[in-house]
Known about the structure:
The N and C termini lie far apart (77 Å). The chain is α/β, with parallel strands linked by helices and 749 residues long. α15 links the parallel β2 and β3. The strands form 8 sheets. It has a 7-stranded mixed β-sheet, covered by helices on one side. The C terminus is likely disordered.
Amino acid sequence: MADMVSIFMSIGLNEQKAKETLKNEALSSTLKKAIEQARGLLGSASIDKTAATMLYNMVTRLKDPTRLSFLTEYIITRKINSELQLSAALDFIKSHPQENLDRLEFEAACGVGVVVTPEQIEDAVELIIRKHKDQLLAERYRFNMGILMGEARTALKWADGKIVKNEVDMQVLHLLGPKTEADLEKKSNLEPKPFLHKICLLFVGEANTEGKSLMEQLRGEALKFHKPGENYKTEGYVVTPNTMNLLKKHLEETGGQVRTRFPPEPNGILHIGHAKAINFNFGYAKANNGICFLRYDDTNPEKEEEKYFTAIKEMVEWLGYKPYAVTHASDQFQLLYDLAVDLIRRGHAYVCHQRGEELKGHNIPPSPWRERPVEESLLLFDRMRKGMFAEGEVTLRMKMVMEDGKMDPVAYRIKYTPHHRTGDTWCIYPTYDYTHCLCDSIENITHSLCTKEFQARRSSYFWLCNALDLYCPVQWEYGRLNLTYTVVSKRKIIKLVETGIMLALLSITDVLVGVTVAQTTMEPHLLEACVREVLNDTAPRAMAILEPLKVTITNLPTSAQTEVRVPDFPANEAKGSHVVPFSKTIFIEQSDFREVMEKGYKRLTPDQPVGLRHAGYVISVQRVIKDGCGKVCELEVTCASSDSVEKPKAFIHWVSDPLRCEVRLYESLFLHKNPEDPAEVPAGFLSDINPNSLTVIGSALVDRSVGKAKVFDKFQFERVGYFSLDPDSTSEKLVFNRTVTLKEDPGKI
């Protein structure tokens, strides 16, 4: 062992890294061979640092050990001397599994012998700068310089990246000059983050925003993903002797089209994490002219309900996507069963009598039935199918070890529960680990996109497709989306519904938080800031009073009634307007009147007039009327044209001849930022419910312009917040849900 550590340290590994490498027997053996071959080529000369690094990187990524000496030769002779060339070399070998490689073709693909001169770099960068010159001059150093580098790297594939970057920086500096104070000025931290461009929060529609759109970001990410049919170029993809034939057949059937799928289990309510998954899967397909399936993973009849199937489809469509097809894992039950039989015949699966509790955890001992004869497993599996065993008595297990160390995952289990689609036809049902990759293969999925927690299943995904000699898609992982002050778990959300804490879940935010493999945790105020930006441009204005105070204008006749025109969007009156009545009796918010003047208060008092928004009037208090309890219940005022009096300190909203409505004001459901964290909430998330998370106002008033609103129509109630019409609304009483408050403090208006 000490000798091996010394050998590995001789190529630049530190002692700890050398010892870690030794833990991987296959890697250690291959690396030792590579070092020995390199020394044989060099003779008495030592391996330089660059070659040593390349050698180690090559060994850790090489899937075909028969090519070891071939690549070692190219590295030691410095024909391959950059990471870019090494990646190209490994890709070429993956795509050319045949025994004899064409060296000329290989060298052309890897840039061997290609010399990029400084003049070529200068000329290429100059063309790129010229292409973007107008935008560069307009945006200066706020321009995304990554665009320039990306185009330069494409044009100068084999050039030294550092030299290219230096040239780009130099030519940008020559064009724009040094950075000015304006260039160095930082944007306000209060502005929404650039990655929160497309927000659809509680009945919000599509948004036009600055910066990269969802489609643009997904097209950018596509550059890192494999192209359809080039699955073998993906890191970790297993190439078999039949892989290229299967990929050829796949391309013939799909025409090279990108194909994704959104595969929810219909056993719970969607949450914000699913919104990201919907965007990622449907958005990636759309951005790359592909198709996306909505596939229900309905393999557990005990937990599935029809209401979840309906709600999931509605949610996908509400977010603006139309599935290419709606499919079910249960569509393939017979084919999946036939493939399981084939898997047993190939010696890759067996019937096991260990109970569920014996299979829990990691490092469990191998099953005593692991090596039972194939014919015996086939017979027992047929008996499972015919209902001759009790639930939990036997399972079908696959002979493989997952990346997290879990051994022989279950492929089929017995459940005597009728299925919502197949009835009692089946009493055995496939598991996720068995079903998922096979349905992807059957549907010719090109990119199987899932969250990072499924990374441990990637090896089993590849293994099962290859074990059955089927087309194998590529699994790509991205980061989960979490949100503070809430829970992102179907199980916990269902618990909230069952306990009556939540009657319905509307946290179905369509949020793009960058296209990233890193787990993301969002603060609610960031979402709120972005949804305000969207609704400000899309939600027409109306006036609503949540806590009404009657106001009688004494100097108007009883029969006086006029119409006041109110712009739908005050910042852009060309987008339309509506009219509201104005009469002797109006209603204002109770908070817009104070009987005793306080410092800094700008609205109505007995000694301070106030303006009425849009009406062109200023009102002054003449008399304060109170009820038997001493509470102010009515004001008598006089009005004057705003043109004839001094401009008031504030203008307030009002309604006249209004509609009565119910308003629901939502706040955070939980009191703590991380309700699932035992350190913050020792008694569990159910103990952390905010008792004020919902306030229902049953006697609110709203102007008549919203009278013909349809369910889910959205409005900005001036000085109050953004609201949408709830499905509970009737012709007698409208019901509005608050989506988000206004950014401004209404006390300052």
